[in-house]
Design goal:
single chain, mainly beta, 7-stranded mixed beta sheet, 7-stranded antiparallel beta sheet, about 0% helix
């Protein structure tokens, strides 16, 4: 089993005033040759957007983009005529494909927005751009894995599709609960909140561990915890 451990404090950080962003992998001004990706997972940004601020219209191409709000709500507009607010409990997926533009904005006058944005490299390029978002029932991830994203050709019922053989799952763990996870590829475990032990390694809030060359591992929560699992091909 190969382990890649990324402590929260080791992430890249950028403070733009209106935006505070932690970069797990190289992104924008943060460049680290040892932190380029985990297999097909290219970006994992932990962004905090100030009230009445946001990302202006900008382009993407040939990338699978997944956004997961942790607190607050983010307004979305894109060149496919989607105009939606993304809220806590929802997951948003965009297949940029042949190209699209979009913007994201915090409409609140008082509250920050904190959201995770993931970029997954696609197995098919130049596809027709696609957008969807869905609210997921929190009770369905209580001490069990809730698949929120899966391959479009092997779609798990109720999940959102991407053009890659990757699976994104979430689980809310009670303190003291233990569960096994069966890896389909390599898997990157990002601890949103709490304290867990994964494959014998203790993680605290915003720590992460990537695991390769193993089929089954054990997760044990030391406190109530929220965990994100990105299971993606390594090549």
């Amino acid at each position: 089993m190969k382990k890649t451990i990324h402590k929260a404090a080791s992430r890249g950080y950028a403070n733009h005033g209106w935006l505070k962003s932690y970069h797990t992998f190289s992104f924008a001004s943060y460049q680290n040759s040892e932190r380029m990706n985990f297999g097909m997972l290219r970006v994992l940004n932990d962004d905090v957007v100030q009230p009445k601020m946001g990302f202006g219209t900008h382009p993407h191409k040939n990338m699978e983009i997944i956004s997961i709000p942790i607190s607050g709500a983010l307004s979305h507009k894109d060149s496919m005529d989607n105009k939606r607010a993304i809220e806590v409990g929802e997951v948003q997926v965009m297949s940029a494909g042949t190209g699209l533009t979009h913007s994201e904005f915090n409409d609140s006058k008082t509250d920050e927005v904190n959201f995770l944005q993931l970029w997954v490299l696609p197995e098919q390029t130049e596809v027709t751009p696609y957008y969807n978002q869905k609210k997921f029932d929190a009770s369905e991830r209580k001490n069990k894995f809730q698949v929120v994203v899966s391959p479009k050709d092997k779609l798990v019922a109720g999940s959102l599709p991407i053009h890659q053989q990757g699976y994104i799952s979430m689980i809310d763990l009670d303190a003291g609960f233990t569960i096994d996870y069966n890896l389909k590829n390599g898997a990157y475990f990002f601890l949103i909140d709490g304290s867990v032990t994964i494959a014998g390694e203790k993680l605290e809030k915003r720590d992460a561990i990537g695991l390769e060359d193993v089929k089954n591992i054990t997760l044990e929560a030391e406190t109530n915890s929220k965990l994100l699992i990105i299971d993606v091909p390594m090549s």
